[in-house]
Amino acid sequence: MKRQDGNWKPVEGFYWYRKLGNRVCAELDCGSAVSVKTRVTSSDTDNWSVRPDCDEPELSDCFTPATSLYTSLELNCSDSVRLVHGSSLCSGRLEVRSNQSKSWSSVCEGHLDLHGAQVVCRELGCGAPGLLQGVLYGEAEAPVVQTFQCEGHESALLDCGSSGSQTCSSGTAVDLTCTDPDDVRLVGGASHCNGEVQMKHHGKWGYMEYGTYYDLWTLKAADVICRRLDCGSAVSVRRSGSSGPKLPISSYCLLSTSTLTDCLRTDTDSNSTPLFLTCSGKSTDDGPDSVRVLP
């Protein structure tokens, strides 16, 4: 990022999460954020720090001068594939940009099968395809006039074979929803709706971090976990005492998405404690009572 004096300086790696990194990828016209990581540097350096609750229209308004504690931000963008106008980084209308084209284009419905959807979801760092459907594309958009022929093992959509197509006869574009690759559970409580929050990331379970003074959990953010477990709404959040690997999740981020991977922060505190969550235990779809008549 450029300073007011015209010189460039790095951005420190603390407090970042993937959804926030997605704003940087968008400003650079580089697709969607695939991953955000903390890179260790050899010494302290003059850099920028970002506010974790950043919701300013201009991303630059979220940065303040700082001195890095031996870290900088490493951001990986998808470059040629992205999902737009969805509820998370893992859902939305599919757009691609070929090596020759500088503009983004929708993909016609029917020109991408399940194998191709698997490639897209994997390329974006998301889980398996959960929903593949068609949505109307705007008159100003120019759909990609080619059919992608993937086997499912390719690392990128543009690595797949393709065949030409003259038009999108249905007038619809591919809308794709990938599943969240991370799972969540409550352990050590009186029921499955009460306990320490554990999250499964890259195949391993870790305790969800309670947070620090700059990103503490609120009941509104914890509601996302309760709803995902079909446990109604959050009643209380507190610190717990178990030891083990910690996974820091930005509570600010969860206010605008239910996808845990979008909100996994780059930093963690070695002195942090797990989050203990109590949910109401009633699904919001069941009304005021939790009794059901089963067939």
Please provide a brief summary of the model.
The chain is mainly β and 295 residues long. The protein contains 4 helices and 17 strands.
Strand and helix map with partners:
Elements: H1 18-27, E1 33-40, E2 46-50, E3 63-67, E4 71-77, E5 81-84, E6 91-96, E7 105-106, H2 114-123, E8 129-136, E9 146-149, E10 161-164, E11 172-178, E12 183-191, E13 194-201, E14 204-208, H3 219-228, E15 234-239, E16 246-247, H4 251-254, E17 275-279
Parallel strand pairs: 14-16
Antiparallel strand pairs: 1-4, 2-3, 5-6, 6-7, 6-11, 8-11, 9-10, 12-13, 13-14, 13-17, 15-17
Protein name: SRCR domain-containing protein
InterPro entries: SRCR, SRCR-like_dom_sf
GO molecular function, one term: serine-type endopeptidase activity
